[in-house]
Amino acid sequence: MESRLQKPPSSVSGLPMEPDRGKNKIERIGEQTKGLFEDFTGWVEVRLKLFQLEMQDKIQSKVNEAIIKIAPAVAGALTGLFLLVTIALFIGWWLGHPAWGYLIVTGMLGLVTVILSSKARRLKTESEEENDLSASENGSSGSSARPALGPNSPA
Fold first, then answer.
1. Domain boundaries, given as residue ranges, for the chain
2. How far is it, in rounded angstroms, from Cα 56 to Cα 61?
């Protein structure tokens, strides 16, 4: 029995394949550069696609976080609304007419609104005063808002 050994690939003529000797060096470098450029553009396209998928994933994650935070707030707001209506109806039933309950609850909510808005205004004014004070202490003008320390005063 004859063992058949595999021969290396050969061209149609039966001779072993050799590099393209018919092309000069510049043509071969041009072809390799073209192949390298195609590989590079393929790599850039894949990186851009990956970036796009990562951004879509981050956006989806932020949307899910927002939904998770907004849903309880909406449910809480509806619960508060129904609680206020229930309180108004109960007070109205107790006083003999539903309108009295709604009037009392509306008055209490108005009072809470006035108190909160005046407190917010006062905090805003205090914050602005602190900013003005710190700006005058750090300012480039020669005067200082703090009193000068004498030789016998503690540092």
1. 25-134
2. 8
